[in-house]
Amino acid sequence: MQSARVAFLVLTTAGQLLAQSEPADPWLTDYERSGFVKTPRYAETVAYCQRLASHSPWVRYTLFGMSPQGRELPLVILSRDRAFTPAAARRTGKAIILIQSGIHAGEIDGKDASLMLIRELAITKQQQRLLDHAILLFVPIFNVDGHERVSPYNRINQNGPEEMGWRATAQNLNLNRDYMKADAPEMRAMLRLFTSWLPDLYVDCHVTDGMDFQYDVTYTVETGPNIDTRVGRWLNDVFLPYVLPKVEAAGHKIFYYVSPREDHDITKGINLTATTPRFSTGYAALQNRPALLIETHMLKPYRTRVEATHDLLKAVIELVNREAGSLRTAVTGADHATIAGGDGSGQILPLKFGLGPRSQPHTFLGVETRLEPGELSGALCPVYSSRPQEFTVPVFDEITVTDSVPIPFAYLIPPEWAAVQEVLQVHGIVLARLAESATLEVESCTFDNVNFSERPYEGRQGVSFSTRPLREMRTYPRGTLVVRTDQRAAKVAVNLLEPGGPDALVRWGFFNAIFEEKEYSETYVMEKVGKRFLADNPALKQEFEKKIKDDPAFAANPRARINWLYLRSPWADPWLNKYPIARLPKPVALRTAKL
Ligand SMILES: [Zn+2]
Hints:
The chain is an alpha+beta fold.
């Protein structure tokens, strides 16, 4: 595909591209000029995008936020109607696609593919029909600070470009774990962009790590019970049947993202699971939007990967042009169903997913592989040959629901925890405040078996626990945040606020102070008080003595024994390990004010 455009370029013995007789095409990208081996730096990328915008009325270059190191987060909008704002874009009735590259800045194929594609859409106009029924948002580099941490040594697995950026942000956060907790300023900017434009389709471009195989490109879409059935069906029945053959016809081998059940033995099977919402595709599912994860294969040459990404993006945009109507119907139908589900009727929302035993046999285009003892690792290690080999591989795709929750009418968040307000709002969740104090019967929970992670993960000390549901009267003061669930982003709200959600804010450590004991009993005090207390509570006395008999570590720990009694005494903190957020299961009349 590139060969026609660069036919007048020759490769010198020094390996550099020089113009022969004709002048070089001024619209070649830096990647093409390099002979398809280098990727441009941030400044060159932005300069090319700005040049595209200054030469085409259909292109606007803008920014959607700032990085922690002070770089603009670039956004290129393509619209033949010059509909460069969310409202104007919506008025055209066209579908909106958001294509992002460089969330992991070392995996930058999507950027170079996108720049060529924008040129073909707006400058050379070979592909201008792809703007007939679609408006395109390109984020050429999402993790801009990581993109500028350039080295040839950033990706040990990867076959080019010659130098590349770094996976994490300047704050050492992995943006593709940050969709829910939204700690990174870049992610907050992306979520504001996402929720203001509400793209009908989201595309996230990566490069894999892992095993060797024949495929240039692998992909993930969510079609399980973690996505609205209309949107999942659209992906399965409309999107994939068009896009996959198109990519294959363009000369690429494409397969599901390869997640082997057992390392080093593909014949044991591949898992197709539901993606948790900390990742792009799982997150878009909660927003009722289809998303495509593109993972080109790291061992393929850079040019092969960029072309595969280009051809896949082109097929995706073609399909959306053909099916803009069915796509809009699916996502708006999903949005209406979500809003209707917040009526307090107790509709069930699945939160956690597993994988059942059912599998389908698939042909897998691998390479001949043998296992050899690894001298360095001391373990068996696969040695991949260059000889292709076909395997029949069971693909496990029976996604099951392992935890779910009835959607309440609303959540109440006391004002002292209002720090979560901004996190909720960047997700497009609409909040209100109690205009006056309210005493209500609510549902909430107490946490047991509380365990903190030993090491930080994504900058946070996560916590695991079991929950004991409780129903009680609580007084929530004026200023309490009210999160109604009869809104479009309700599934995100439920996932953030239900402790059972895999990316619940409480699991990410947003409420860790609730697990801290702030009052204790001195031993000499409890020796006196505790005896009286046990004398008045024979059942507790029995439990205490049994624990001493059965649990030698406990028996040998004076502090633990005294604290055990303290926590069961009237002096204990009734709010220790208790969730401050409550559910209102049924509709209640609340006097609220807008934020
Ligand atoms: Zn990646």
